[in-house]
Design brief:
The structure is a single chain. The chain has five helices and no strands. α2 runs parallel beside α4. It starts with a helix and ends in a 14-residue tail after the last helix. The C terminus is likely disordered.
């Protein structure tokens, strides 16, 4: 499970990086992109390969929730322990988008839109809306 605000920032940055490498360069703002994609995700939960989909929709009995912020090594170690296997010695590198120079600006309306879209995540996982999402994902 990942903080919805950080997850959305990361998704925006990676899609912008990919689009910037293609023939069709993008100049869409974060706010416009977010609004368009949340609207699309409301109609089709599989939009963007479930990357915007609220986590509660994947939750159920027998599901262990592990916050992304624990880091891939800790999460992998916990999964290995649950499976009673040795964790891998090395993990593949992940996309690093926080260091990209793509500006992400969170205004109040955008924060409230995300808060509403992910309301059940915040309620189910008892996450504080003010503590989550600084707008500075890593």
């Amino acid at each position: 499970m990942r903080n919805p605000y950080d997850r959305i920032e990361s998704e925006f940055r990676i899609r912008a990086v990919i689009a910037g490498k293609s023939f069709w360069k993008t100049s869409r703002t974060f706010t416009l992109c977010l609004e368009q994609n949340l609207a699309a995700a409301e109609k089709n939960p599989f939009h963007l390969d479930n990357h915007l989909r609220p986590h509660w929709e994947f939750h159920g009995s027998g599901v262990t929730v592990m916050p992304f912020e624990l880091g891939s090594s800790e999460i992998t170690a916990r999964i290995a322990a649950l499976l009673e296997v040795e964790p891998p010695r090395e993990l593949p590198s992940m996309h690093e988008t926080a260091s990209s120079r793509i500006e992400v600006e969170w205004d109040l309306a955008v924060r409230l839109r995300v808060q509403d879209f992910h309301r059940m995540d915040f309620e189910l996982f008892q996450s504080s809306l003010t503590a989550l999402g600084t707008g500075n994902s890593s």
